[in-house]
Structures are given as structure tokens and as C-alpha cells.
Amino acid sequence: MSELKFDRWRLPFEEALMAHNLAGFSPAGLYEPIDYFMNLGGKRLRPIVCLAAAEQCGASLSQAMGAALAIEWFHNFSLVHDDIMDRAPLRRGKPTIHERNGLAAGVLCGDRMLVQSYVFLAQCPSSALPVLLNRFNQTASEVCDGQQLDMDFEQRSLVEAHEYIEMIRLKTAVLLGFALEAGALCAGWSNQQSAPLYRFGEQLGIAFQIKDDWLDAFGDPSQTGKQPGGDVLARKKTWLWIQAQKEAGITLAELDALDDSERVKRSLGLFRDLDLPARSMDLALFHKQKALDSLSLLSKTAGPTPFFIEFADYLLGREF
Fold this sequence. Notes:
Elements (H helix, E strand, L loop, with lengths): L2 H17 L8 H11 L6 H12 L4 H26 L3 E2 L2 E2 L1 H5 L1 H19 L7 H26 L6 H26 L4 H28 L2 H4 L5 H4 L5 H10 L3 H4 L4 H14 L2 H19 L11 H12 L3
Antiparallel strand pairs: 1-2
Helix pairs in contact: 1-3, 1-4, 2-6, 3-4, 3-8, 4-6, 4-7, 4-8, 7-8, 8-9, 9-15, 15-16
């Protein structure tokens, strides 16, 4: 799916995002950094699929815009706090809030962004709000669970592949699943009716993260904007590393004496020797197919599903 096709939902969403920004609010020490971060850009994939799902299920964009805004604000809140925990100096090529404005600002700005997501959620259709609120809270809790597992893995010498899949399901995939589900709920669908869309997003979110890990290691830096092997340098236990450790018996400690360049070269070479680039993409495609299989369970009232199929192809085919 081309970026141009996304404009049907992206442009109205960006207009709503700008119309509801917090620029100029007081105190400036809180709101200026938030406005800075929200304007760093991003793919806006979650609000886009929320709005697209709402239309597929019979709602107008205005009916689902509150949910789309809530999801994007929550996502960005999680990034602000993730950056603090990861001690990341950059986000989308620009200084992170805690690097730019200090640690205390990063914590407080993230807190305020989380509150703002509930402000927007409250703008959803009143008939759907009780279910939406419950599902949003559950999703937010699971995202926090996934973040903790990710941090726990940094302290462990051995992580199993199935543990990694569960971690990315919680940290990344459930929010994409909720975005699709929320669109259906805003259209008046029940929990049961919207469940296949949630499953579609959840499985596609797992595939998305596996592809992201692949791009980090093997993508074209001119397209990804990332340094090849960034996850290796950060000692992230991705599926690639987990399989390499299991099959070759290598440990992180064995690489600690190497400089950054040699560490990346040796790790990526090992991944290739074990055919992990192709095998990781096979795993991503497996979860993509599980996502597509769930579409067969959608209510006939959802109409045709070309958008969802094209969206899945887009996520797995992207090179950035």
C-alpha cells in the first residue's frame, strides 16, 4: 500500500492532531516539550488503521477520531518513557525530551500525555465508551507488562524465542490490535464482532516487530535512517540474537571485548551464516498469515477487506 493511499485517513487525522495540540498552554515548561515531541512525526499507523477500520465497519471518521487521537497520544507517551528507560538520546533523529529538557521534564511530560489520551477517549460515542475504556485500560496495562519484560531480558543471559514473541506481543502488537478494535467499537460493533479485527492487528503487530528487527540488522541505512546493527550494539535480545545464541552457542560476554564496528560485523555475519535473515522473515510471514486468517471471521457487514490485506502487505514489504 502506498503512502498516497494512506492520505485518506492520515490527512484528516493530522488536521485533528494539530487542532487539538497543547502549544501555548501554560506552564510552558510542561507543554512546550510535549508539543515538540508530538511534532516529531512518525508513521501514524495506529490512528490510520483505527479510522480505516471504523469506516469499514460503518462509522464516520468523526465518530472514531477521539479514539484515534487517544491511541496516538498514548503511543507517544509510551515512547517518551521508553526513551528514559533506554537512555536514548534521539527519537526520529531529534533529541529526546529527557535529553533536551531534563529527566524530570521527561517523566512529567509523559504523565501529562497519558492523561491527554483519556481526554480524547472520552470524546468517543457514549454508547461505546464503557467497552472502549475497559479495553483501553487492559491494553495500556499489557503495554507496560511488555516493557517490563523487555527490561528483564536485558538482565538475563538466556531468553527463549517464545518469551520474545510474547514480549513483543505485549509491548507492540496489542496496541495495533486495539486500534483496529476501537474503530469497530466506535461503529457500534460488539466485543465479539470486533474480536477478529483485534486478532488481525495483534498478529500483524508481531510480524511488524520481527520485520523491524530485520530492518535494524539488514535494512538499507539510507531508507531506515538507522545504523545497521543498532540492536546488536544495544545488546537487545531479538529473535535473531536468541536463535544465534541457541544455535551457535555464542554469548554477549564473548563480544564485549570487541569495538562497536567489529561487534556488529561479527554478529551480522553469524546471523547470515545461520540463514537467520530468511528464517526471521519466514516467521514474520507466518504471523502475517495468522493475521489474514482472522479476517475470514469478520461479520459480512464489514464489507470487503482489501484495505486490511493491502495494509498487511505494506507492513511486511516496507524497507524503512
